[in-house]
Amino acid sequence: MASDRRKNRGPPPIDPHKPRRRANRVLSPVVAVFAAIYFLIDALFLPPIHWVAERLGRFRLFARLGDWIRSRGPYQTLALFLVPLILLEPVKPVAAYLMASKRFTHGVIVLVVGEILKITIVERLFHIGRAKLMTIPAFAWAYNFVMRWLDYLKSLPAWQAVVRRVNAIKATARAVWRRMRARFRLMLRGAR
Predict the structure, then answer these.
(1) Which residue from 144, 165, 139, 172 is spatially nearest to 32, judged by alpha carbons?
(2) To the nearest 10°, the Cα dihedral for 60, 64, 70, 76?
(3) Overall pTM surpassing 0.85 (yes/no)
């Protein structure tokens, strides 16, 4: 009778969340490292790049260039979007060669300047031509695919932990900066 009960019960129920927990446990350090690198790049490079792009956008030449880009069709805009990527991508191997040939400073300068130029130009072109680029089905699919993955990564607990830590660091840095600025102002007033 007891053996009949065992036969009828079948295998124990499978917990559908168990494989996901294992995957999250394995991917958590990878996501944390990826998030830390992402926020480091975001904190170090993007504010100056946005500042430069904003300043350049005020020049009449760049305003005319923006108008010209807006007047192009979607595939011409895509070609304009890809040109800086194609021209500036060889900067990485050149920088690696310079670093390998014991010219580390030159290699770092080439890499940083090339990447800043590439990001600034590509970001500006994307901002100007986004609506037209999104009319190209393959581009829209690839863009949406990447954005969904980024949204997924941002929803993971490891990413959220890094976000909380970065926000705490930013808040501390802002508080320190305010205190230093206030002390500097007091010193200037005392010197008068």
Answers:
(1) 165
(2) -130
(3) no
